[in-house]
Design a protein that fits this description.
Layout lengths: L7 H17 L5 H11 L5 H5 L18 H17 L5 H12 L2 H22 L5 H13 L1
Helix pairs in contact: 1-2, 2-4, 4-6, 5-6, 5-7, 6-7
């Protein structure tokens, strides 16, 4: 039987559950540890995650200038996964250069996050796989800026 994709609500609940468990000092899975660390870096989302019923079904619309906190934190998690396996090849070295430039792991991830979001947007718009080389070029441009 094929696995069913996790619903948006289930995915969002993963964030709030990981944060609740971290705050309570409960044991965390490896994934929950990563999620809780990303949440820790975003105090602007703590209240939202501490009251998850407000957020589980909410839409954040870019047209209204809103940032979806779950998308934002999910992109951080995706970047950490990319770094753990150096995929696309060279992303780990690019991150190291950004880290050297910014002196701040969170700031380096944010520079990459903008490139990742742009790459994913183009892929979705054009109905194709993300262009890993364009993603790396974007990151490297942030190093030079």
């Amino acid at each position: 039987m094929p696995l069913q994709p996790e619903s948006r609500t289930d995915m969002r609940r993963t964030f709030s559950d990981a944060w609740r468990k971290q705050q309570a000092g409960e044991p965390l899975s490896a994934l929950e540890t990563i999620v809780a660390d990303v949440i820790r870096l975003h105090p602007e989302y703590h209240g939202l995650l501490e009251n998850p019923d407000q957020a589980l079904d909410r839409d954040w619309l870019p047209e209204g200038g809103e940032t979806n906190p779950f998308l934002h934190m999910g992109l951080h998690i995706a970047i950490r996964e990319q770094l753990s396996i150096d995929r696309p090849a060279g992303v780990k070295a690019a991150y190291a250069a950004l880290l050297k430039k910014t002196g701040d792991p969170h700031a380096a991830e944010h520079a990459m996050l903008e490139c990742l979001a742009e790459t994913l947007w183009h892929a979705q718009r054009d109905n194709r796989l993300p262009d890993e080389q364009a993603y790396l070029i974007c990151i490297k441009s942030r190093i030079r800026d």
